[in-house]
Design goal:
About 35% of the residues lie in helices and about 20% in strands. It is α/β, with parallel strands linked by helices. The chain has a single domain (about 5-165), classed as P-loop containing nucleotide triphosphate hydrolases (Rossmann fold, 3-Layer(aba) Sandwich). It is globular and about 45 Å long. One of its GO terms (molecular function) is GTPase activity.
Amino acid sequence: MDSDMDYERPNVETIKCVVVGDNAVGKTRLICARACNATLTQYQLLATHVPTVWAIDQYRVCQEVLERSRDVVDDVSVSLRLWDTFGDHHKDRRFAYGRSDVVVLCFSIANPNSLHHVKTMWYPEIKHFCPRAPVILVGCQLDLRYADLEAVNRARRPLARECWIKRSDILGKNL
């Protein structure tokens, strides 16, 4: 079945979820873990940074990805479309934000600067381009952390009052 069919079927609600954050915080790995059920070995995870490789075309060309995007929430059939972004490509992000239903804002628990950028850059940018979209704050790289989680909690309260998630590929937590 072609993924474009989800857009045409009235009984399937397509949810556009844009994933943003600094470079190398784990955005693409988060998406691949959800969309492809992809897990990597500890060696693969630690060996190198995986630059953005996820494309919206995956829903069109890969039946498994399309099937994993579908679910039923509150008796409504939905298809979750994850949009990966480059951390430093401002023009591309503006395009990605268009008609977003939800934004996942990622930071690295192992990098205090990425949490600082959540407050000073990412959250204001999201609210500028997607003022009504809910924001889910995701702390990635839990396995590499040295962050004070209470400091993370204090920083996230004004941004993500209802939800923030800590995740780790290595520990297999919250994938």
